[in-house]
Amino acid sequence: MATLQHRGRCRLMLRIPGWRAEFRDATDPDFLDICEAYELAWRGLMVTGDTDTAKVVVGYSEMVDCLETVALTLAVLIRNRRTM
Fold first, then answer.
1. How many domains are there within the chain?
2. Which one of 12, 29, 45, 54 is most buried, counting C-beta atoms within 10 A?
3. In the 8-state DSSP scheme, what is residue 17?
4. Taking a C-beta distance cutoff of 8 angstroms, is the pair 60, 45 a contact?
């Protein structure tokens, strides 16, 4: 069974394919925490997506967007470290 971190990493790689290599190679604990949070946010979005509670859906959607931004920021740092 895949961990939340692994599933979140895989989901990021599918959602943002241009950064797959950086996401795949990242081992930083902060990045792995982001992957776990990303998977949990997606799960929350999927569960609440069938409800009529628009505020909750918007909240999870914003969380997913924010975590994608953080993951990309960390990926840029990873890419920059490799090129130094």
1. 1
2. 12
3. G
4. yes
